[in-house]
Write a structure and sequence with these properties.
- The complex is a heterodimer.
- By secondary structure, chain A is an all-alpha fold.
- Helices cover 75% and strands 0% of the residues of chain A.
- Chain A is globular and about 75 Å long.
- Chain B is mostly helical.
- Chain B has one domain.
- In chain B, 70% of the residues lie in helices and 0% in strands.
- Chain B contains 16 helices and no strands.
- The longest helix of chain B is centred in the middle third of the chain and has 27 residues.
- The mean pLDDT of chain B is 88.
- Classes of the chains: A mainly alpha, B mainly alpha.
Amino acid sequence: MTTESRAERWGAIAAPIALAVLVAIVLLLLAGANPFEAFKLIGEGALSGWANMGETLMAWVPLVLASAGLIITFNAGLWNIGIEGQIILGGIAASWAAREVGGPGWVVVPAAIVAGALGGMVWALFAGVLKTRFKVNEIFGGLGLDFVAASLAVYLVIGPWKRQGVASTSGTDLFRDEALLPTVAENNRLSLVAVGLAIAGVVFVYYLMKGTLFGLRLKAVGRNVRSAFLLGIPTSRYMLGAFALCGVLAGIAGSMQAIGFHFKLIPAISGGYGFLGILVVLLAAFRAAWIAPIALFFIAMSRGSTQLALRLDIDSALGGVITGILVLLVILGGGWQARRLLRREAAS
Amino acid sequence: MILGATWSEIWSAWGDVFTTASLASMVAAAGPLIYATIGETITEKAGVINLSLEGSLMLSALAGFGTAFVADNVLIGFLAAAAVGAAIAALIAFASIELRLDQIAVGFVMTLLAIDLSDYLGNRFVGEAGPAVPAWPIPGLSDIPWIGEVLFDHNVSVYGSFVVVIVAYIFIYRTRRGLELQGIGERPEGAFARGVAVNRMRYFYTIVGGSLVGVAGAAFSLDQRLGWREGLTRNLGWIALAIVIFGGWHPIRVAIGAILFGFLQVVALQFQSVFPGVSQVLPTIPFPLMILALVIVYTDWFRRLGDRYPRLRGILAADPPGGIGVAFHPE
C-alpha cells in the first residue's frame, strides 16, 4: 500500500495556487498593467482603512453564511444550486418584515432576521420536496426556483413595493432606521450582529458535521443513499433536513443583505453570493473550518478588483477570473493527484 | 380592466404577436437556442452533463464577435466560437473521464469562470459595430405567401438551425451510430460489453455538443444580438438547460421548446407597454414549466395514463438517459 508523502500533499495545493498567480500575472500583463502594482491595489482596495475593512466584512457575512449552509447540503450529497433563490427569498421576507412590523429596533430587526430565515427555509424545502417526493433533480428544480425568486424580487420592486413616485429597478424605498442592523460607527455598514451571526453559522455547521449524530448520518446519506437507507436512516427526511438548515442560513444571508447592506430590497439582492459560495465550498473541500478564510479571500479579490478597475483601466471581473481559475486548478490538481496514487497502487 | 390595462389594449397587443413579421422574429430568435439545446441534447444523450452552458454561451459569443471583428469575417468568428465551446466541453469530459471528478462541479466552476473571463476580455469590444451574418432570403421559397416570410426570409445561421434539428433527429433515431449513442448514455456497461469504446465516444459527442453550443454563442453575437456587451447572453444558458429537460432529450421536442421560448419573448415584447411589470417576468416562465413537466412525469396519474394509452408516452414521457452524469470506468 502506498500513501502520498507530505511533500506531495502540499505540492497538490501549492502548485495550483502558483499556477493561478501566474495566470493572473499574464492576464494583467496582457492588459498592460504592472502586476505588482495591481496586486498591491487589490490588497489596499479590500483591506486598507477601518471603514474599508468594515465594508469588506459586511460583504463577507452573507458569503460565509451561504457557504456554511452549502456545507450541509454538499455533505448530504446534494447540489443545492437553488441557494441563490433561497438568499433572495430571505431578502424578500426580511424586507417584508422591515416594512410591515412596527415598533422599536429590538423588535423589528430580530423579526426581519427570523422572517428571512423562514423565507429561505421554505424556498429550500420546495427544492427538497421536489427532490424527495417528485424525484426532480435538485439542480434543475433549484435553478428553476432561483429564476422564480429573482422574478418575484423584480416584480415586488417595480410593482407592489415600488418607490414613492416613479417605479425603478434600482430598488424599493429605504427601510426606516429602526429596521436596519445597528452599526458600530456612523457612515459605515459594519454591524457586530451580522459578523456575530456569520461566526455563529460557521461554528454551528462545524459542530453539526463533526460532533452530532445528525451530521454523521447526513454524511452517510451523502456517501451512498442506498446503503444509508438500508442501514435504517430515513434518507428523505435527512435530505429535507439538510435543505431546511441550508435554507435557514441562506435566508439569514439574504436578510443581512437587505437590512444590513443595501437597506432596501433590490432585484439583485442575493449579490451572487449563493453561486460564489459554491466555489468557496468546493475550494474548502466541503470542510467548515476553511470557509471563513476562503470567503474572506474571495471577497477581498472581488472588492479589491473593483478598486483596481477605478484606478487602472482594468475590468473588475479580474478578481472573479483569478478566483475561478484557482478553484478550477485546485479541483483538477486534486483529481490528478488521486489518479497518480491510484496508478501507483495498481502498479505496486 | 386587468392589471391596469383595458381589454382593447390587450387584444391589440395579442394581435401584434401573430403578425408575420413577429412570427418571423420568433423563428429567428429561436435559432441560437436551437443550436445550444441540440448540442446539449447530444451531450446528455451520451451520458455527460455539460452544466457550463451559461458560461460557454457567453464566452463563445465573445470569441465569435471578437474574432469576426478582428478578422472582419463572420465565418472565422463562428469557427472560433465553436472552438471555445468545444474546448470547455473537452475539459469537462477530461475531468470526468480521466480525473474522475464530478462533472457538475467542473461544469459549474467553468460556468462562473467563463462568464468572468468574457467580462474581462470583452472590455475592448463593448459597443463596437462588427460584421453580421448577411440576410439571404431563399430564392423561390421566400416568395411563398406567409410561410415564406416566416420561415425562409432569414440568413444562413437561422436555416442552419433547422438543418441541425433534422440531422440530429435522423442521426439519433434512424442510424446505427445513433443507436450506439443512445446506448452509451442509457447503459454504458451494456454498450461496453458489445465492444463500444464508451469513453472515447463520450469525448467525441461531448465535444460535438460543445461546438454546437459555441455556434449558438456566435449566432447571438453575430446575428441575433449583434455586437458584444457584458452579459450579452445572460440566463440563456440556464434556459437552454431547462429546455433540454422540457423537451425530454428529444431533438424535435427540444426545438419546439426553443421556439416556444422565442414565442414568449415576442409576447413579452408586445406586452411590454401594456403590462410593464408582468412582461419582465415572462422570460422566466420556461422554468416553472420545466418543473411542472418533470413533476407531472413522475406522478402515478401520469404513469397510469401512459399505461392506458401507450402512444401518449412517446409524446410526453421525459425520462433522462439512464447513465446521465455518471462517469463510466471499464474496470
